[in-house]
Specification:
This protein is an alpha+beta fold. It folds into 2 domains: about 40 residues, no CATH class; about 180 residues, no CATH class. Helix content is about 30%, strand content about 20%. It contains 7 helices and 8 strands, in the order αααβββααββαβββα.
C-alpha cells in the first residue's frame, strides 16, 4: 500500500472541509457551531433581525407643511367625556361657557382628572389640547376617552406631560390607528401624535411648530426613572 506524507493527508482533509462548507453555504445552510450539526441548525426556525429591532424602535419624522391642514378645524361642541384609568374616575363637562369663552370651572375639573398618578399633583391643561379632545369626543359619538396618562410631575421636565400639554388616550371599541388618523387630520401645525401599537394607545400633544409624528414599538415603561417624581419631592411635601 502506498504511504502518503502526513502533510499531504492534512492538506487533503482541509480541502474536503472547505468544499463541504462551500456546498453548505450554497444550499443556504448555516454553519454549525458548538458541536451542533448542520442538519440540526437547519431545522431551527430562522430568526430575522427586523423583528428584534422593531420591538424597541421609535420611528419619527417632522410633518411637512403639505401634510397639514390649510386652516384650523371648525370649533368643536366643547363636550368632553373622559375616564381616568389610573383613578377610575369619569368626567363629563363642556369646556365652553354659554358666551363661548373657556370655562374656568371645567378647566379645574379636567385638571383634577388629569392629575399625576404618582403624586396627585395637579396642573392646568392647555386649552388647545382640550379642544382636540372635544373634537375626538364629537367624532366618536361621545364615547368616553380613556386617559392613560395626563399631567406627570416628573424628573424629565422637557416632557410635554410635565407641562400639561399632552395626553395618552384610547377609546374602547375604536381601533387605535383610526383614532390616530383622526387626530392627525386636526393638525394645522404645532401638534405631536405618537402611536404605541404594542400597548394600544396614542399620544397627542400641542407644541411649537413643527408638528411631529412617531411610532414607538416598545412596550412603554410607566415606571421609568425619568417619569419618577423629582428628587426630594416627598420631603418637600412633608414640610409643606
Amino acid at each position: 500500500m502506498p504511504r502518503f506524507p502526513l502533510t499531504a493527508l492534512l492538506g487533503l482533509s482541509l480541502a474536503l472541509a472547505h468544499v463541504g462548507a462551500v456546498r453548505a453555504a450554497a444550499a443556504g445552510w448555516p454553519r454549525s457551531s458548538g458541536g451542533e450539526t448542520g442538519a440540526r441548525d437547519r431545522d431551527k426556525p430562522a430568526k430575522t433581525s427586523k423583528r428584534r429591532v422593531r420591538r424597541g424602535t421609535l420611528i419619527g419624522r417632522v410633518v411637512s407643511d403639505s401634510q397639514l391642514r390649510a386652516s384650523p378645524p371648525p370649533r368643536p361642541s366643547g363636550n368632553i367625556r373622559i375616564y381616568s384609568i389610573n383613578y377610575q374616575e369619569e368626567l363629563e363637562t363642556n369646556i365652553y361657557n354659554p358666551d363661548g369663552s373657556y370655562s374656568v370651572e371645567a378647566a379645574r375639573q379636567i385638571a383634577h382628572v388629569f392629575r399625576c398618578r404618582r403624586t396627585g399633583e395637579e396642573h392646568e391643561i392647555d386649552p388647545r389640547l382640550l379642544t382636540i379632545l372635544s373634537h375626538v369626543n364629537d367624532r366618536f359619538g361621545g364615547r368616553a376617552i380613556e386617559l392613560l396618562s395626563g399631567y406627570r410631575f416628573q424628573r424629565k421636565t422637557t416632557s410635554n406631560h410635565f407641562h400639561g400639554t399632552a395626553s395618552d388616550i384610547r377609546i374602547a371599541g375604536v381601533r387605535v390607528r383610526d383614532l390616530q388618523a383622526f387626530v392627525q387630520s386636526l393638525d394645522a401645525g404645532g401638534m405631536g401624535v405618537g402611536l404605541y401599537p404594542r400597548v394600544g394607545f396614542i399620544h397627542v400633544d400641542v407644541r411649537p411648530a413643527p408638528s411631529f409624528r412617531w411610532i414607538d414599538y416598545s412596550r412603554s415603561n410607566p415606571d421609568a426613572r425619568e417619569k419618577q417624581p423629582p428628587r426630594g419631592w416627598k420631603r418637600r411635601k412633608l414640610e409643606s
